[in-house]
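Many introductory courses stop at the sequence. We go one step further.
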Amino acid sequence: MSQPEVLETLSTLPHFRLLDPELLRRVAEGSRLRKLESGEILFRDGDPCRGFYAVRSGGVRLFRVTPDGREQVVHHLGAGQTFAEAALLNMGRYPASAVATETPTEVVEIAGEPFSRLFREEPRLSAAMVGSLCMRLISLVERVEELSLVNAGARLARHLLRQPGHGPSGRVRIDLAMAKKDLAAHLSMTPETLSRLLRRWQDQGLVETERGSVTVLDPERLLALADGA
């Protein structure tokens, strides 16, 4: 990827978009593009940390493998999202594995050693990073509260309402960015619960489901479900 494209990608990220052009250029000098196929592992749980990443296109799933061999999804990431900052700045090793979920997937790798040096030398960069990560922490706390206090139907309704939709207000099609089993894990429910909810909503005329998408037929009722009605 050419230098202008690297700068353009980094300039859109919450960590860097307020940096002056010269400092952003120095961050870009330690960055490179990596292209991945669906199912390709970017790093594994416990690997030494070589940098952190920004998703340019496609998708990445973070996961851990439980002692009994089951995959536990930690997070799904799409374009414009970053991950593994804490591994670089504090832990030294990746605490989870990362795998591409789409073909192609492009990630920008911000190399660890040059970025860590710049982080120590430039208070403007460290202040921007700390501020951005604090905002992410607030978002994660809100998500924990939502998962612990809100019922499964409301969680699914809220998720759908946050996604971009296509079509008129009475038939809004929402393309699911992940497989249903991954969506269920993301919403802290079983795949069976997710399937039952969608089937019930379809029987009630609230949605229509197809492979890879959900069409909302009654946005007002979905909004009520999101509010816990």
